[in-house]
Amino acid sequence: MLENEPQDATCERERREILSSLKQVFGLSLADWWCPRPSIDALIWPTGLYHISTQLRDLSIKSEVDSISPSQSIHDGTTLVSKGGSFELGFFSPGSSENRYLGIWYKNIPVRTVVWVANRCNPINDSSGILMINSTGHLVLLGQNKSVVWWISSAKHAPSATVELLDSGNLVLRDAGPYLWQSFDYPSDTFLPGMKIGWDLRTGIKRSLSAWKNSEDPCPGDFTYGIEMERDTHPEAYVRKGTAKYYRSGPWNGLRFSGSPELRPDPLYSFDFVNNDDEVYYMYNLQNKSVISRIVLNQTTSTRDRFTWIEADQTWRAYSSVPRDLCDYYDLCGANGKCIIDENPVCQCLKGFRPVSQEKWNLMDWSLGCVRNKPLSCQENYKDGFVKFVGLKLPDTTHSWVNKSMNLKECRTKCLNNCSCMAYTSSDIRGGGTRCAIWFGDLIDIRQFPAAG
Questions:
Q1: In 3D, which of 78, 72, 117, 113 has the Cα closest to residue 99?
Q2: What does pTM read for this prediction?
Q3: Cα gap 190→343, rounded to integer Å
Q4: CB atoms < 10 A from the CB of 36, how many?
Q5: Range 64-186 has CATH code 2.90.10.10
Q6: Beta strand segments in 158-287, E
Q7: CB atoms < 10 A from the CB of 270, how many?
Q8: pLDDT per residue as tens digits for the range 63-112
Q9: In the chain, what are the domain boundaries?
């Protein structure tokens, strides 16, 4: 306060200085705040400050939107935030890269964790990016000079369509009725709860994961994960490096993948595998909605990892990872061999088989696999029988055949009457076992577990 300045004059001077600044930011008029009378200072001053903080809070709420219409757009520097505040969509640069990408990440996790990228192999090299819906209802990402960087089109002409970021992390283009397009149909490297990995047989859409090339380049590398199947075969999940099979889940047995015995009833996760005339897919969901978890493919480590966010430590903690050990690597023991991680050596021939090359087998080169000790009596099949195995990761189903109406007894007869049949089992172990799965030719990538797989 200036010397000899009356208290009211001081208040008036300070009021005008403060409001001059506030007016530039918030648009407050001089009437929005008045000087307090000395007798009620304690009552009036807090009211004025509360009024300002309320306006601040209202402004932040208004700045977060979860959808845009054809008259709106998202520019570099602005974002969409899902209604519940779980995910955010906007432009980002990975690592030390200066390239700009449109992506989705967790909103409330301080370590930016991107779960989906639109323009994976076509970055924008400045801040000119704009996401918009054009006049025909197509979602378009524009870059320099309004050039088209990425776009999606729907079969339906939908000029009134809107794009919305859901609290599941799914970006959807919608009009009246079903989604016209959704990012969950085109995953990047991350498998989120509620997302389907597999096939939509009606539309031909294949949903699979592909790892980033590296931490600064989201363009797909050669490390992929997806459901593979042929007509009348048993579908299962594979991780591939390029075209080579790298890890295999084993076929679904009604309860879990036979190569993943850890997939059991869990207070955190639920799992589902659907195989019908319309769809073949695997999905997981979180039982506890407060848990944040994701599955990611990593090109650098060549692993598929599940992470869970630990709020107390402010970090992602590895929950599980595959390959888990040596026996998880595809076809380690060769044809008709099985891998037992607690044995030394880990590879053994199946009962009734011997190494193709004992010399190489002794040197722990199991790549040639095993052959029968003596051939089958194809013309006198009553002389042949079966050896029962339990606790196996079932063989690669590429050369298999599945019948959903046969029981196990019929399945045995079917296999015994076909000289190229090598093995059979119930494809669904629930309720004592139903359906029939038969393998032809060599049995590939078998693993023995200590408990039933």
A1: 117
A2: 0.83
A3: 35
A4: 18
A5: yes
A6: 162-165, 171-174, 179-182, 190-191, 197-200, 205-207, 209-214, 217-228, 236-241, 244-248, 269-275, 279-286
A7: 13
A8: 689 999 998 999 999 999 999 999 999 999 999 999 999 999 999 999 99
A9: 7-62, 64-186, 192-324, 328-448
